[in-house]
Every structure is written in C-alpha cells, then in structure tokens.
Amino acid sequence: MSISPKRGELKLITYNLKHKIMAAWVVRAGRNGEDEQLALDEDLVCIRWIIPHDLSRVTDKKQLYIYAKEEAPFASEGRLHNSVAQLYSFVHRIENGDFVILPRKETLKTTRTIAVGRALSYEYRSDLRSLKNNISLYQTRGVKWLDKNLPRSELDDEAQKSINLPSTVFLLNLATEEAIVDSLRKRGVT
What we know:
Blueprint: H1 9-18, E1 24-27, H2 36-42, E2 44-47, H3 61-71, H4 77-93, E3 99-103, E4 113-124, E5 139-151, H5 157-163, E6 169-171, H6 174-186
Helix pairs in contact: 3-4, 5-6
C-alpha cells in the first residue's frame, strides 16, 4: 500500500524541502493601530504591555505572570494567562526570519492592506514611545519589511479570517502563511 500526497500537498512538500519552514505571526500595533506608523517607520513591531523589564532572559512563565499582574492588578486570571502566553510568544517563540504580519488599521476603510516582513531579534527599548499617547513601548522586535501594503483582497477568505483573529500576538496556520507567500511572489517580493 502506498500513501500518496493529496492535491496541493506535493506543492507544500516541495516548498518545505527547498526552504526552511518559517512561522508566520500576526503582531498588532495597538487595539486601534495606534503604533502602526511608528512600526513601519522604525522597522519594528512592538507590543503595548507596559512592562519595563528586558524579558529576553525571562523564560519562566511564572515570572512573566508576575510582571503582567503588576501591570494589570485587577485583570482576570484568564486575561493574565492570555497576556503571558502572548508575551512569551513575542519574546521567545518568534524566531529571526519568521514572517511578521501587521494588519493595517489605517487602511481598513480604503484599501485594506497588511504589512509583511521578516522578524529580526527581540529588543528591550527604554527610549521608544507611542506617537499617539506617549506611553513607553519596551518590548520590540526589529523587522525587515518586505511589503508594507499587501492588499488583503489578494488572500483567500480563510487567510483573511485568520489574520482578523482578535489577539495581539498569534501564530498563523500554514495555509495562511502559504497564501501570503504566494501573494508576495506574485508581486515580485521574495
């Protein structure tokens, strides 16, 4: 008995053999896109949790929980655990070279685009402040932007739905990553 790949799987297998599989992560720039322009101008992504500590050496989620609790002492346990999971992913799970997707809020009513880049290293910054409300943005990652205006309309419905999930930091599924990579290729971006 032989097992042959399903339609579409052969393309994926061939792609995986030629390229190291990189994950694709959505990282939002504030609930309403407050730090979107800063992220694009400064070649980075950042998260708005005000935790004034370098988290690169904090691999214990219990310590991250303590920091999250200090920031939001009245938050529910569920919210705190969700925050810790996203903080941990931002600092420790995103790897250099992974795709970073920034859903563009400022283009939502017009062209509806996303910015796509490659993640660089995590960096704690004490000098970076939000342009909208002047809060400190300590947790950042450098990004090499590949396309700052990829139209969402170039992605299939499932990929668009995946990108619209409400979390700040989350890993996209492989099908959505492939849809984004295919769109970049069609636009001549590698």
